[in-house]
Amino acid sequence: MNPVLAELHDKARAVLDPVHYDFFAGGVGDEVVLAENEAAFRRLALLPRVLRGKQNSAEFPVLISPTAFHRLAHPDGELATARAAGGTVLVSGMASTVPIADVVAAATGPVWFQLYLQPDPRVTEALVRRAERAGCAALVITVDSPVFGRHRRDIAHGFHDLPAGLAAENMRDLAGVTGLRKIEMAACSWQDVDRLRELTSLPVWLKGVLHRQDAVLAVEHGVAGIFVSNHGGRQLDVVPAALDALPAVVHAVGGRIPVVLDGGVRSGADIALAVALGASAAGIGRPVLWGLAADGEAGVRRVLDVLRDEFQHVLALCGGELGPDMVVVR
Ligand SMILES: Cc1cc2nc3c(=O)[nH]c(=O)nc-3n(C[C@H](O)[C@H](O)[C@H](O)COP(=O)(O)O)c2cc1C
Ligand SMILES: CC(C)CC(=O)C(=O)O
């Protein structure tokens, strides 16, 4: 791992309450998928192209994946993440400890809003209006969570709720309820996706697609793009590594909509492998949390800077191009 990212992770582990560290670091079940997400990248190699001349690319195909409760990592929470994002798309979570309007106000680049469709459609609509009013550029519905994942580390610690003083601020005073509403999950259907699309003119993405048939359905239902994601190994512990699920989805989508990959991306080379296999961008989850915990805004900025620098270096060494013909199994 890049020494800067390793240092930020070590520092995060040292400064965080161990219960909160485990909430961020942990996965579901035996944490097989958590480990596999990273291991999948190590199983692949890139065959660079040569003699392609000088390639100048400022491209940085990365976005910040939504993660919950940033004020558990650092007092500035999502405000620090937003300030550090620069021009990188920040997918801000519904489970943010700062209201979405304040996140967007702190950001200098595009902010998308991630949500779980709520059992009460009025609550979903109120959240969508909040995201619209705040100025979010897209909505991302997370569809891999009809129920909560069972995280053994959290269960062992008895960690079920935010400490006093922190709250899921986007849920405050929603749909006639005074005070805080809890985040809920719901088993939704394609009809709910259609309904959401009718409710808003914002582009609607889906996050947590692994099956090729669902990718085809997403295209048919007018979805703007999809995230191939297993939620960072936090939902079902028998799914493939996210990277291993990518090629079939990319093939099924056939270029009709963009496909983002998240899960286990830890280096510029990982970003390059995802892009070579057809991802339009790679989403970064935990490394952003480690940067945030270690050093607030500056820490998140360092994570993005390291990944950008590494990716551009790998791209230059690959002759400025990436494609599926360049990926081989080790
Ligand atoms: C602590 C934590 C909280 C997360 N919260 C959310 C969330 O609220 N909504 C969501 O769609 N995904 C959530 N995710 C999943 C991330 O968006 C992303 O899919 C995953 O972290 C990517 O894997 P990585 O951490 O290996 O980069 C969370 C992940 C972590 C680690
Ligand atoms: C608390 C949840 C809403 C967020 C989370 O931890 C997850 O999605 O993995």
UniProtKB/TrEMBL annotation:
Question: What does the UniProt keyword field contain?
Answer: Flavoprotein, FMN, Oxidoreductase
Tell me the GO molecular function terms.
FMN binding; oxidoreductase activity
Chain residues that bind FMN: P66, T67, A68, Q114, T142, K207, S229, D262, G263, G264, V265, R266, G285, R286
Q: Which cofactor does it need?
A: FMN
Q: Kindly list the positions annotated as binding glyoxylate.
A: Y116, H231, R234
Which CDD domains has this protein been placed in?
A: alpha_hydroxyacid_oxid_FMN
Q: Does the keyword Hydrolase apply?
A: no
> Which terms in the GO cellular component ontology are assigned?
cytoplasm
Q: Which residues form the active site?
A: H231 (proton acceptor)
Which InterPro entries does this entry report, sorted A to Z? Aldolase_TIM, Alpha-hydoxy_acid_DH_FMN, FMN-dep_DH, FMN_HAD, FMN_hydac_DH_AS
Annotated ranges, domain FMN hydroxy acid dehydrogenase = 1-330
What family, per the record? Answer: Belongs to the FMN-dependent alpha-hydroxy acid dehydrogenase family.
Q: Which PANTHER family match?
A: 2-HYDROXYACID OXIDASE 2, S -2-HYDROXY-ACID OXIDASE-RELATED
Q: What is this protein called?
A: Alpha-hydroxy-acid oxidizing protein
Taxonomic source organism:
Lentzea alba
Q: Taxonomic classification, please?
A: Bacteria, Bacillati, Actinomycetota, Actinomycetes, Pseudonocardiales
